[in-house]
Amino acid sequence: MKSSLPAAPAHATPMPDAARRDEDGARERLLLVGLRLFAEQGYAKTSIRQIGLAANANVASVSYYFGNKAGLYRAVFWGAASPLSVPGAASDAAPDAASFSLPLLFERMLEPLKSGAQARLWIKLHRREMIEPTGLWQQKINQGMLPTHAALVALLCERLGIDQPDDEVQALATLIVGPAVHLLVNCEVVDILAPQLLQGADAVDRWCGRLLANAEALIRAERRRRQAGAASPSPARRSSSSARKSPAAGASRAATARSSQRTSGRSA
User: Fold this and answer.
1) Whole-prediction pTM value?
2) I want to staple 115 with a disulfide (CB 3.0 to 4.6 A). Which of 98, 105, 119, 189 is the partner?
3) Is the pLDDT higher at 263 or at 210?
4) What is the CATH number of domain 1-84?
5) Distance in angstroms between the alpha carbons of the first and the last residue of the chain
């Protein structure tokens, strides 16, 4: 079921400095509870009243801090949760092409996994957004995924020494990020199969090293494939060359042709 988030109301209460400081912790509680309820129930089935009660905050505080329920959902989805330590806003930003690198790519992709249980909720929220879209998933694709893919493809073209990407380069980019996406989307499965593999920041950093080694191996294999293809003649050229270099093959074809002619003459 597809729905779209309403725009923030024009009369939304401005957030003064005191609100940004969140002295009583209401804003942080709203973000934490909003993350949990939106992830578990979805946007449509979660009410402001539910969030306020669970966060022990006045319902009006949602409007005060975020404008409306949609504003709170956006803040949770994009990870704009200071002082909440759910990452996302930085990793969803379009990459700087000048500083883009494979180590940075994997570091940014796996950063959410370092936040433990909160990260699992944040990832669950993104999975729910994929199947119950409000419009933010398409924004995430346009603002984060597409620029990141384009930067990775450009890097691969440079590493392979080609000017324009072909389908094999596009496929290579997909193969490189695929394992990282698997860790993010299926982190709860990994937690069951081998929980130690994702426990703590050091474990996540080790995954970044594994992913980098895997990516470099894929790039080397693709470079060798291209070099071998450039050094080998095409099948058509090989066939033509083989015919020219084989007198026996030519004589055999001539004998076959003469035999066919004699057979045709007798039949006539």
Assistant:
1) 0.71
2) 119
3) 210
4) 1.10.10.60
5) 76
